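Contributing new records

If you add data, match the layout below exactly. Sequence lines come first and carry their own label; structure lines follow with theirs. Keep one chain per record. Anything else will be rejected by the validation script.
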Amino acid sequence: MKYILLSLLVLSLASHSQESPVIGTVLTKENVSQYSDFIDIPLKQLIEQGYVTITVGETFTVPMNEKFASQTNKYKNTATIDHGTGNLLNYKEGLPFSDPIIVSDDQAGVKIAWNMRYAYGGDSSMVDPFIWDYRNMTKDKIERTISFVGKTLRYKHRVSSLPETNLPDNKAGIFSAIYLLAKKPYDLKNTQLLVHRLEDDSARERTWLYLSVQRRVRRLPSGQSTDAFLGSDIMIEDFLGYNGRIMDMKWKLLSREEILVPFFKHNKLNADIPDSNEYDFGQFHGKGHCFPNVPWQVRKVYKIEAIPKWTQHPLSKRIFYVDAETFTPVLGRFYDKSGDIWRMAIGGFSHPDYHLSENKGSGVMIPSLISMIDVQAQHCTTLKMKTSINSASVTRKNFTVQSLRTKGK
């Protein structure tokens, strides 16, 4: 296990000409140029414009889930990439590619994409409440709030149920599933989304939507995964960092860097506030309150590019910053067809041992405060999440089309 963790952390990075910011440093428009080596350029530009400030926190490590680490070690160097299709071959369990990934490897980008897909995020998760705020950045006003319950479930390559890693009776070959149920406001109550991601990457994901106003389940065509979901700044394809087929993108590793990312310890956000039985989500700040107000730490990341092969795709490319230790996609920027930045994604993730007690020891970075910022429209959608990993309340029956109909009645 130690070898795996060390191999993920050891990267030959381009040397910085600037010194790393120390803990407690606040990056503002007055001093951000001193730390430009550690900031993604578009984010640096927003800081220079006074949109947001960033406070530097401690850098920590996240121990890999022990069972997942055992799987990774057992099947190390088993998985390969098909040169023609980019498909993953001979994958068994664990992290497909645990050795350091180098820029000169022409398969580096797609290897990282597969690592993102199979990195351990829990066999299930429950997000309740899951609050989406639609915000006007210019007016600093919340235009709409939707409260969801969100659930995920892995059907295959599970960890908590070892030695049996797959759920039985999965004839469709489902790898994982996502479910959303709207609780508020009244006009959207009981609206539901169900996504089945199949393990066969050549197969299209299967997506169903139950709209409460229509009172029926509708199967969504694949093209609608790139539409704005319920009028937000988020596509279904954006879920979990990237919820599309890996084969639909041309993946390239651009560089390996050390930059500031919003990883933090959730229960240290308001350490001077007495303990309460109520969950403290944390806050957003900056222009329009569109940016997670959490400490950012210097971490090793992979910077990868994904260019859609589908010419009708609304994006010309995506840029991801993927944490090198956990393979969490933590920052992203998305470009329109003209090649201009359209949206920026910022994912605030908590160390699992400093979050809810049930998440301790899971080895899963906990999504907590997420924002998708439309820099062209000066609008954002912010997500506040109370996330439990491997929740006993997540059952397989939640992820069926029949369940959509039953819940909608």
